[in-house]
Write a structure and sequence with these properties.
The protein contains four helices and 17 strands. It is an alpha+beta fold. It has two domains: 106 residues, 2,3-Dihydroxybiphenyl 1,2-Dioxygenase, domain 1; 111 residues, 2,3-Dihydroxybiphenyl 1,2-Dioxygenase, domain 1 (Roll). Strands 9, 10, 11, 12, 13, 14, 15, 16 and 17 form a nine-stranded mixed β-sheet that branches. It has an eight-stranded mixed β-sheet with strand order 2-3-4-1-5-8-7-6. A hairpin with an 8-residue loop joins strand 10 and strand 11. Helix 1 packs antiparallel against helix 4. The radius of gyration is 17 Å and the shape is globular.
Length: 248
Amino acid sequence: MVLPMPILTTAQPPGTPTWLTLATTDLDAAMAFHHALFSWDFAVSGGAAVCLLDGRPVAALTGGTPDPPTWTVHFATEDCAGTAASVVVAGGRLVAPVREVDGATVAEAEDPTGARFGLWQARGRIGCEVVNEPNSLVRNDLATPDAAAARAFYAEVFDFTLDGNQDLPDFDFTFLRRRDGHEIGGIFANPGGSPFWNTTFEVADTDEAVARAVAAGATTTAPEDMVYGRIATVTAPWGTEISVIARP
């Protein structure tokens, strides 16, 4: 698992998951659900809401989108336009162009297997200011039917190194690491499944988080223990999935 780094005050190194957005058709419902699940507060402006944990940004919700609601993880870059060009050269495509938003230069893309992700060049806003703490981002993993293509793509675009996972010998799983050796996530082979970047939030108690989610209208898997902690999948009332984990 990623080593703790709970409070961030400077931009993350390139390739690090650094910001999360949920595009939703019902902003009020999304805020109510995530407040019930994670005790987030919100700063609302212009049809969007920055999610706050103890007053610090941890994600954002955007309303009014016609697309199916979905979480998007944004990877840090020091040159959004340059990284966007690398995405195309490596076989991906841009689904939203490079542009300026409040405090960052951003773009959205798809990898060659069809999984969406974002790019985030911090300016006034570094992205998530709390990570690896209860009710905040702890990791992201790509599930894809073509793990080989995904491994080649992300290694080329972000200069990741690739390591096998001896903890999960029965799975086709590859760690993604920055050049400094820091693990930023992984790639799961999911034959026949849809490609997507799954977001995992840390919680203090997985069973309690599942109970809160169900009370707020979600469906969930039963919590189960694995090598990295006690984990469950939460499906929001509008269909988006996230994972929650209480680490040892």
